[in-house]
Amino acid sequence: FFNEKHPAHRPRRDSLDESHLCPPGNVRGMEIVDGVDGLIGNTPLMRIRSLSEATGCTILFLNPGGSAKDRVALNIIKTAEDEGILHPDNGSTVFEGTVGSTGISIAMIARAKGYNAWIVMPDDQAKEKYQLLEKLSATVEKVRPVSIIDKKQFVNLARTRAQEFGKEDSNTTGAIGYFADQFENKANYDIHYKTTGPEIYRQTGGKIDAIVLGAGTGGTLSGISTYLKSLIPRLKVYLVDPPGSGLYHKVKHGILYSPFEAEGTRRRHQVDTVVEGIGINRLTQNFDLGFENIDNAYRATDEEAVKMARYLVREDGLFIGSSSAVNCVGAVRVARELGPGHVIVTLLNDSGQRHLTKFWSDDYLRENGIAYELSKDDTVDTIV
Ligand code: PMP
């Protein structure tokens, strides 16, 4: 069983002083929490053995449990309750436009608190996300992926549906339609500033050299980086961007630019990438709040993301989703830029289980001409 090539069996590099890292178990006490929302937040960092060994850096993953969006959805709903907009048990409906994760988190919390959830999603996402939403008894409305300026774009349609619901129902039943609006709602940024950032700081004793993240709404990147940079001014913040997204160009050259859109070479179903949840061609309010924190940006290809995910399950038993794989590609690029001995933090956004029929499906990849196979000789250096 002992295999000296396996990361778990190789001796650790002496050069890394990880004594400041909080040992596992100190993160969440052993208290009994109240309901499913009580489980959200306070998540542990884990060291990714294979990538840390390969780069000589300490590469840490914040593992947020179900989804990084759970805490965002909970804060959006709690903030609306605090403002007197939503009341538990009044049968109100929370509307959201989402590629899935935020919708699933909203549907879960809505169930736990007695609201209904109405989720508008593009129709090209992994089908297990729609199935999960249906099991959580959300209303799911699928739309064709179209430009953000189109009224039928998923975010715009969710806003319209919330307004329509308000007109029809609020006078008779008191129930309202509340548009969660993860892209523009500052409760998204706030929860990462107030919880995710401090959790990372506490667990590392503030000894972090860099964070690296992909972005969708940008709430995670802006919230975490603003908090951490306020305490660690020398911290480097990196964006990692999937194919088709305009953010890389924005960081590098100051303007949003998507090569796929410009060249008219979008893939089937207008999907530029097999990666779900990150990549965007506009700056949302949540992103704008922390965009200036970004020091540098990298791109990640589908091939790198697909191979990275397969590599991590082979080496570490880590079964991750597509945006988390992009984050890990970014972490390796950052490790190369900074050199050995640095501490780099990234995030696990969700598990591979939400991506079985697309990112993790060899059939899907083959049908879309992006069948990348991990060979047994592949290493971190051949993948990224
Ligand atoms: N990964 C996944 C799976 C997501 O759904 C999202 C959000 N759409 C992100 C990453 C990016 O997070 P943020 O919106 O905070 O930029």
Automatic annotation (TrEMBL):
<dbReference type="InterPro" id="IPR001926">
    <property type="entry name" value="TrpB-like_PALP"/>
</dbReference>
<keyword id="KW-0472">Membrane</keyword>
<dbReference type="InterPro" id="IPR050214">
    <property type="entry name" value="Cys_Synth/Cystath_Beta-Synth"/>
</dbReference>
<keyword id="KW-1133">Transmembrane helix</keyword>
<keyword id="KW-0496">Mitochondrion</keyword>
<comment type="similarity">
    <text>Belongs to the cysteine synthase/cystathionine beta-synthase family.</text>
</comment>
<keyword id="KW-0812">Transmembrane</keyword>
<protein>
    <recommendedName>
        <fullName>cysteine synthase</fullName>
        <ecNumber>2.5.1.47</ecNumber>
    </recommendedName>
</protein>
<dbReference type="GO" id="GO:0005741">
    <property type="term" value="C:mitochondrial outer membrane"/>
</dbReference>
<dbReference type="InterPro" id="IPR036052">
    <property type="entry name" value="TrpB-like_PALP_sf"/>
</dbReference>
<dbReference type="Pfam" id="PF00291">
    <property type="entry name" value="PALP"/>
</dbReference>
<keyword id="KW-0808">Transferase</keyword>
<feature type="domain" description="Tryptophan synthase beta chain-like PALP">
    <location>
        <begin position="38"/>
        <end position="349"/>
    </location>
</feature>
<dbReference type="GO" id="GO:0004124">
    <property type="term" value="F:cysteine synthase activity"/>
</dbReference>
<keyword id="KW-1000">Mitochondrion outer membrane</keyword>
